[in-house]
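go over my protein:
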Amino acid sequence: MLDAEKLALEEAGHRVGRFTIDFVSLDDATSAAGKWDPGTTSSNARRAAHDTRTIAYLGELDSGATAVSLPILNQAGILQISPASTDVGLTRASAEPGTPDRYYPAGTRTFGRIVPADDVQATAQATLQKTQGCTRTYLLTDEEVGSKGLGEQFAKAAEGRGLRIVADAGVDPNATNFRSLAGDIRASGADCMFFAGVTESKAVQLFTDVNAANPTMKLFGPDGVAEPAFARRLNQATQKMTFLTDPALDPTVYPPSAQQFFAAFKQRYGRQPAPYAIYGYEAMKVALLAIHGAGERGNERQAVIDAFFDVKDRDSVLGRYSIDENGDTTLSEYGADRVENGRLVFDDVIGPRPAS
Protein backbone atom coordinates (compact mmCIF):
# COMPACT_ATOMS: atom_id res chain seq x y z
CA MET A 1 0.00 0.00 0.00
CA LEU A 2 2.82 2.36 0.84
CA ASP A 3 4.54 1.64 -2.48
CA ALA A 4 1.24 2.22 -4.29
CA GLU A 5 0.84 5.59 -2.58
CA LYS A 6 4.35 6.54 -3.64
CA LEU A 7 3.60 5.42 -7.20
CA ALA A 8 0.52 7.65 -7.39
CA LEU A 9 2.54 10.62 -6.20
CA GLU A 10 5.37 9.87 -8.64
CA GLU A 11 2.87 9.73 -11.50
CA ALA A 12 1.76 13.23 -10.51
CA GLY A 13 5.35 14.42 -10.56
CA HIS A 14 5.04 15.34 -6.87
CA ARG A 15 3.06 18.38 -7.95
CA VAL A 16 -0.50 19.66 -7.96
CA GLY A 17 -0.80 22.97 -9.80
CA ARG A 18 1.73 25.36 -8.29
CA PHE A 19 2.24 23.20 -5.21
CA THR A 20 5.03 20.70 -4.61
CA ILE A 21 3.87 17.67 -2.60
CA ASP A 22 6.25 16.02 -0.15
CA PHE A 23 5.60 12.57 1.30
CA VAL A 24 6.42 11.49 4.86
CA SER A 25 5.92 7.84 5.88
CA LEU A 26 5.16 7.06 9.54
CA ASP A 27 4.69 3.54 10.96
CA ASP A 28 2.01 3.12 13.65
CA ALA A 29 3.27 -0.35 14.63
CA THR A 30 6.10 -1.42 16.90
CA SER A 31 8.09 -4.64 16.89
CA ALA A 32 7.33 -5.09 20.59
CA ALA A 33 3.57 -4.90 20.10
CA GLY A 34 3.62 -6.80 16.80
CA LYS A 35 0.80 -4.57 15.55
CA TRP A 36 -0.32 -0.95 15.67
CA ASP A 37 0.48 0.78 18.94
CA PRO A 38 -1.71 3.50 20.53
CA GLY A 39 1.22 5.58 21.78
CA THR A 40 3.02 5.46 18.44
CA THR A 41 -0.17 6.25 16.57
CA SER A 42 -0.84 9.25 18.80
CA SER A 43 2.74 10.45 18.36
CA ASN A 44 2.45 10.18 14.58
CA ALA A 45 -0.80 12.14 14.51
CA ARG A 46 0.62 14.87 16.74
CA ARG A 47 3.70 15.12 14.55
CA ALA A 48 1.48 15.65 11.52
CA ALA A 49 -0.75 18.10 13.37
CA HIS A 50 2.17 20.22 14.55
CA ASP A 51 3.75 20.44 11.09
CA THR A 52 2.26 23.55 9.47
CA ARG A 53 2.94 22.06 6.02
CA THR A 54 0.72 19.01 6.56
CA ILE A 55 -2.20 19.12 4.13
CA ALA A 56 -3.46 15.52 4.27
CA TYR A 57 -2.95 12.36 6.31
CA LEU A 58 -3.41 8.94 4.70
CA GLY A 59 -4.26 6.36 7.32
CA GLU A 60 -4.60 4.39 9.29
CA LEU A 61 -5.22 0.85 8.19
CA ASP A 62 -6.81 -0.32 11.46
CA SER A 63 -10.01 1.18 12.80
CA GLY A 64 -8.59 1.16 16.32
CA ALA A 65 -5.62 3.22 15.21
CA THR A 66 -7.89 5.65 13.36
CA ALA A 67 -9.91 6.07 16.55
CA VAL A 68 -6.71 7.29 18.21
CA SER A 69 -5.43 9.58 15.46
CA LEU A 70 -8.72 11.06 14.24
CA PRO A 71 -9.51 13.37 17.20
CA ILE A 72 -5.98 14.78 17.08
CA LEU A 73 -6.08 15.47 13.37
CA ASN A 74 -9.65 16.74 13.52
CA GLN A 75 -8.66 19.30 16.14
CA ALA A 76 -5.87 20.44 13.82
CA GLY A 77 -8.24 20.63 10.84
CA ILE A 78 -6.35 18.15 8.67
CA LEU A 79 -7.97 15.99 5.99
CA GLN A 80 -7.62 12.31 6.93
CA ILE A 81 -8.30 9.60 4.36
CA SER A 82 -8.23 5.95 5.40
CA PRO A 83 -7.71 3.23 2.79
CA ALA A 84 -8.84 0.45 5.12
CA SER A 85 -10.55 1.49 8.39
CA THR A 86 -14.07 0.08 8.18
CA ASP A 87 -15.65 0.71 11.62
CA VAL A 88 -19.05 2.34 11.16
CA GLY A 89 -18.61 4.40 14.33
CA LEU A 90 -15.88 6.50 12.75
CA THR A 91 -18.46 8.22 10.58
CA ARG A 92 -21.90 7.29 11.96
CA ALA A 93 -23.56 6.22 15.21
CA SER A 94 -22.71 2.62 16.13
CA ALA A 95 -22.74 0.21 19.06
CA GLU A 96 -19.93 2.18 20.70
CA PRO A 97 -21.27 5.00 22.95
CA GLY A 98 -20.64 8.55 21.79
CA THR A 99 -19.90 7.69 18.18
CA PRO A 100 -19.14 9.39 15.92
CA ASP A 101 -19.12 12.74 17.78
CA ARG A 102 -16.30 11.80 20.13
CA TYR A 103 -13.94 11.59 17.16
CA TYR A 104 -14.67 15.15 16.06
CA PRO A 105 -13.80 17.55 18.92
CA ALA A 106 -13.66 20.45 16.45
CA GLY A 107 -17.31 19.85 15.59
CA THR A 108 -16.65 19.54 11.85
CA ARG A 109 -15.95 16.52 9.63
CA THR A 110 -12.38 15.99 8.44
CA PHE A 111 -12.28 12.21 7.90
CA GLY A 112 -13.27 10.05 4.97
CA ARG A 113 -12.56 6.55 3.66
CA ILE A 114 -12.49 4.89 0.28
CA VAL A 115 -13.24 1.42 1.63
CA PRO A 116 -16.88 0.42 2.26
CA ALA A 117 -17.80 0.50 5.95
CA ASP A 118 -18.71 -2.47 8.10
CA ASP A 119 -22.46 -2.22 7.53
CA VAL A 120 -21.71 -3.07 3.89
CA GLN A 121 -19.35 -5.84 4.97
CA ALA A 122 -21.91 -7.26 7.42
CA THR A 123 -24.44 -7.61 4.62
CA ALA A 124 -21.83 -9.26 2.41
CA GLN A 125 -20.83 -11.61 5.23
CA ALA A 126 -24.43 -12.66 5.91
CA THR A 127 -24.98 -13.20 2.19
CA LEU A 128 -21.83 -15.33 1.97
CA GLN A 129 -22.85 -17.47 4.94
CA LYS A 130 -26.31 -18.00 3.55
CA THR A 131 -24.78 -19.02 0.21
CA GLN A 132 -22.59 -21.52 2.05
CA GLY A 133 -25.60 -23.13 3.69
CA CYS A 134 -25.31 -21.69 7.19
CA THR A 135 -28.43 -21.69 9.37
CA ARG A 136 -27.01 -21.24 12.91
CA THR A 137 -23.95 -19.04 13.46
CA TYR A 138 -21.77 -18.69 16.55
CA LEU A 139 -20.60 -15.06 16.65
CA LEU A 140 -17.26 -14.07 18.20
CA THR A 141 -15.74 -10.61 18.68
CA ASP A 142 -12.38 -9.41 19.96
CA GLU A 143 -11.28 -6.26 21.81
CA GLU A 144 -10.44 -4.19 18.73
CA VAL A 145 -12.40 -1.02 17.95
CA GLY A 146 -15.16 -1.88 15.51
CA SER A 147 -15.34 -5.59 16.30
CA LYS A 148 -18.48 -5.32 18.39
CA GLY A 149 -19.89 -2.88 15.86
CA LEU A 150 -19.31 -5.33 13.04
CA GLY A 151 -20.87 -8.07 15.16
CA GLU A 152 -23.94 -5.90 15.76
CA GLN A 153 -24.24 -5.05 12.07
CA PHE A 154 -23.85 -8.71 11.17
CA ALA A 155 -26.59 -9.75 13.59
CA LYS A 156 -28.99 -7.35 11.89
CA ALA A 157 -28.02 -8.56 8.42
CA ALA A 158 -28.26 -12.21 9.49
CA GLU A 159 -31.77 -11.76 10.86
CA GLY A 160 -32.91 -10.38 7.53
CA ARG A 161 -31.56 -13.48 5.77
CA GLY A 162 -32.96 -16.13 8.07
CA LEU A 163 -29.66 -16.84 9.87
CA ARG A 164 -29.87 -17.48 13.58
CA ILE A 165 -27.16 -16.19 15.94
CA VAL A 166 -26.93 -18.91 18.60
CA ALA A 167 -24.35 -17.08 20.74
CA ASP A 168 -22.38 -13.82 20.88
CA ALA A 169 -19.12 -14.23 22.81
CA GLY A 170 -15.83 -12.43 23.28
CA VAL A 171 -12.37 -13.76 22.47
CA ASP A 172 -9.50 -13.14 24.87
CA PRO A 173 -6.44 -12.37 22.71
CA ASN A 174 -4.21 -13.27 25.68
CA ALA A 175 -5.55 -16.81 25.94
CA THR A 176 -3.05 -19.62 25.41
CA ASN A 177 -5.55 -21.59 23.33
CA PHE A 178 -9.26 -21.73 22.54
CA ARG A 179 -10.01 -25.41 23.08
CA SER A 180 -12.60 -24.71 25.79
CA LEU A 181 -14.34 -22.14 23.59
CA ALA A 182 -14.24 -24.63 20.69
CA GLY A 183 -16.05 -27.11 22.92
CA ASP A 184 -18.70 -24.52 23.75
CA ILE A 185 -19.19 -23.88 20.05
CA ARG A 186 -19.62 -27.60 19.38
CA ALA A 187 -22.18 -27.89 22.19
CA SER A 188 -24.18 -24.91 20.87
CA GLY A 189 -25.38 -26.75 17.80
CA ALA A 190 -24.05 -24.05 15.47
CA ASP A 191 -23.13 -25.10 11.94
CA CYS A 192 -20.99 -21.99 11.25
CA MET A 193 -18.71 -19.63 13.18
CA PHE A 194 -18.06 -15.95 12.43
CA PHE A 195 -15.09 -14.19 14.04
CA ALA A 196 -15.54 -10.41 13.67
CA GLY A 197 -11.95 -9.63 14.60
CA VAL A 198 -8.36 -9.29 13.41
CA THR A 199 -5.41 -11.60 12.85
CA GLU A 200 -3.49 -10.17 15.80
CA SER A 201 -6.14 -11.42 18.22
CA LYS A 202 -4.75 -14.95 17.80
CA ALA A 203 -7.13 -15.64 14.93
CA VAL A 204 -4.97 -18.47 13.58
CA GLN A 205 -5.07 -20.28 16.93
CA LEU A 206 -8.80 -19.65 17.20
CA PHE A 207 -9.66 -21.02 13.77
CA THR A 208 -7.32 -24.00 14.26
CA ASP A 209 -8.80 -24.96 17.64
CA VAL A 210 -12.39 -24.53 16.47
CA ASN A 211 -11.72 -26.64 13.39
CA ALA A 212 -10.11 -29.39 15.45
CA ALA A 213 -13.21 -29.63 17.64
CA ASN A 214 -15.70 -29.01 14.82
CA PRO A 215 -14.13 -30.40 11.63
CA THR A 216 -17.29 -30.03 9.51
CA MET A 217 -18.09 -26.48 10.64
CA LYS A 218 -17.55 -23.63 8.18
CA LEU A 219 -15.48 -20.80 9.62
CA PHE A 220 -15.92 -17.19 8.52
CA GLY A 221 -13.86 -14.06 9.01
CA PRO A 222 -13.91 -10.40 7.89
CA ASP A 223 -11.35 -8.14 6.24
CA GLY A 224 -9.45 -8.08 9.55
CA VAL A 225 -8.11 -11.57 8.82
CA ALA A 226 -8.15 -11.42 5.01
CA GLU A 227 -4.38 -11.11 4.73
CA PRO A 228 -1.39 -13.34 3.95
CA ALA A 229 -0.25 -13.40 7.59
CA PHE A 230 -3.45 -15.25 8.47
CA ALA A 231 -3.85 -17.48 5.43
CA ARG A 232 -0.33 -18.90 5.28
CA ARG A 233 -0.37 -20.07 8.91
CA LEU A 234 -3.57 -22.13 8.77
CA ASN A 235 -3.22 -25.89 8.50
CA GLN A 236 -4.72 -27.65 5.48
CA ALA A 237 -7.80 -28.91 7.30
CA THR A 238 -8.68 -25.45 8.60
CA GLN A 239 -8.03 -23.81 5.24
CA LYS A 240 -10.66 -26.00 3.58
CA MET A 241 -13.35 -24.73 5.95
CA THR A 242 -12.39 -21.03 5.98
CA PHE A 243 -14.28 -18.31 4.08
CA LEU A 244 -13.63 -14.56 4.26
CA THR A 245 -15.10 -11.24 3.17
CA ASP A 246 -12.58 -8.83 1.71
CA PRO A 247 -13.00 -5.38 0.08
CA ALA A 248 -10.01 -6.13 -2.16
CA LEU A 249 -11.39 -7.73 -5.32
CA ASP A 250 -9.78 -9.83 -8.04
CA PRO A 251 -7.76 -7.64 -10.46
CA THR A 252 -9.93 -8.72 -13.41
CA VAL A 253 -13.06 -7.29 -11.75
CA TYR A 254 -11.77 -3.71 -11.61
CA PRO A 255 -12.16 -1.10 -14.40
CA PRO A 256 -9.56 -0.67 -17.20
CA SER A 257 -7.80 2.09 -15.27
CA ALA A 258 -6.98 -0.45 -12.57
CA GLN A 259 -5.27 -2.68 -15.12
CA GLN A 260 -3.01 0.27 -15.92
CA PHE A 261 -2.23 0.58 -12.21
CA PHE A 262 -1.33 -3.11 -11.88
CA ALA A 263 0.98 -2.87 -14.91
CA ALA A 264 2.62 0.34 -13.67
CA PHE A 265 3.15 -1.14 -10.20
CA LYS A 266 4.82 -4.24 -11.58
CA GLN A 267 7.05 -2.18 -13.87
CA ARG A 268 8.04 0.16 -11.01
CA TYR A 269 8.62 -2.46 -8.28
CA GLY A 270 9.19 -5.71 -10.18
CA ARG A 271 6.35 -7.60 -8.52
CA GLN A 272 2.60 -7.83 -8.49
CA PRO A 273 0.88 -5.60 -5.90
CA ALA A 274 -0.80 -7.20 -2.90
CA PRO A 275 -4.63 -6.93 -2.98
CA TYR A 276 -4.88 -3.89 -0.69
CA ALA A 277 -2.29 -1.89 -2.65
CA ILE A 278 -5.00 -0.51 -4.93
CA TYR A 279 -6.63 1.15 -1.93
CA GLY A 280 -3.36 2.88 -1.05
CA TYR A 281 -3.05 4.06 -4.63
CA GLU A 282 -6.56 5.51 -4.68
CA ALA A 283 -6.13 7.14 -1.26
CA MET A 284 -3.22 9.14 -2.65
CA LYS A 285 -5.01 9.86 -5.92
CA VAL A 286 -8.11 11.26 -4.21
CA ALA A 287 -5.98 13.30 -1.79
CA LEU A 288 -4.21 14.89 -4.76
CA LEU A 289 -7.60 15.43 -6.39
CA ALA A 290 -8.80 17.29 -3.28
CA ILE A 291 -5.74 19.54 -3.36
CA HIS A 292 -6.37 20.18 -7.05
CA GLY A 293 -10.04 20.87 -6.36
CA ALA A 294 -9.09 23.56 -3.86
CA GLY A 295 -7.36 25.45 -6.68
CA GLU A 296 -5.23 28.37 -5.52
CA ARG A 297 -6.20 27.44 -1.96
CA GLY A 298 -4.61 24.02 -2.30
CA ASN A 299 -2.32 24.79 0.63
CA GLU A 300 -5.24 25.66 2.94
CA ARG A 301 -6.46 22.77 5.06
CA GLN A 302 -10.16 23.62 5.14
CA ALA A 303 -10.30 24.23 1.39
CA VAL A 304 -8.82 20.78 0.78
CA ILE A 305 -11.27 19.18 3.22
CA ASP A 306 -14.17 20.86 1.43
CA ALA A 307 -12.89 19.67 -1.94
CA PHE A 308 -12.65 16.08 -0.68
CA PHE A 309 -16.25 16.10 0.54
CA ASP A 310 -17.27 17.48 -2.85
CA VAL A 311 -15.98 14.36 -4.66
CA LYS A 312 -18.89 13.07 -6.74
CA ASP A 313 -19.07 10.34 -9.38
CA ARG A 314 -15.31 9.91 -9.44
CA ASP A 315 -14.11 7.34 -11.99
CA SER A 316 -11.27 5.62 -10.16
CA VAL A 317 -9.30 2.38 -10.19
CA LEU A 318 -11.86 1.06 -7.68
CA GLY A 319 -14.83 2.02 -9.84
CA ARG A 320 -17.12 5.05 -9.80
CA TYR A 321 -17.87 6.48 -6.37
CA SER A 322 -18.82 9.59 -4.44
CA ILE A 323 -18.01 10.73 -0.90
CA ASP A 324 -21.13 11.38 1.16
CA GLU A 325 -21.66 13.96 3.91
CA ASN A 326 -20.36 11.52 6.54
CA GLY A 327 -17.13 10.82 4.69
CA ASP A 328 -18.20 7.38 3.48
CA THR A 329 -17.70 6.04 -0.02
CA THR A 330 -20.67 4.93 -2.08
CA LEU A 331 -18.76 1.81 -3.17
CA SER A 332 -20.62 -1.28 -1.98
CA GLU A 333 -18.75 -4.31 -3.34
CA TYR A 334 -17.06 -6.93 -1.20
CA GLY A 335 -15.16 -9.98 -2.33
CA ALA A 336 -15.69 -13.54 -1.14
CA ASP A 337 -12.37 -15.32 -0.51
CA ARG A 338 -11.36 -18.82 0.47
CA VAL A 339 -7.95 -20.09 1.57
CA GLU A 340 -5.99 -22.53 -0.55
CA ASN A 341 -2.34 -23.61 -0.17
CA GLY A 342 -1.75 -20.82 2.31
CA ARG A 343 -3.07 -18.11 0.00
CA LEU A 344 -6.23 -16.07 -0.28
CA VAL A 345 -8.16 -17.11 -3.39
CA PHE A 346 -10.84 -14.80 -4.76
CA ASP A 347 -14.20 -16.46 -5.43
CA ASP A 348 -16.73 -13.81 -6.37
CA VAL A 349 -18.06 -10.29 -5.90
CA ILE A 350 -20.83 -9.82 -3.34
CA GLY A 351 -22.89 -6.82 -4.40
CA PRO A 352 -22.85 -4.77 -7.63
CA ARG A 353 -19.64 -4.92 -9.60
CA PRO A 354 -17.49 -1.76 -9.80
CA ALA A 355 -18.70 0.71 -12.42
CA SER A 356 -16.24 1.46 -15.20
Observations:
- The chain has two domains: 2-116+255-321, 118-246+335-350.
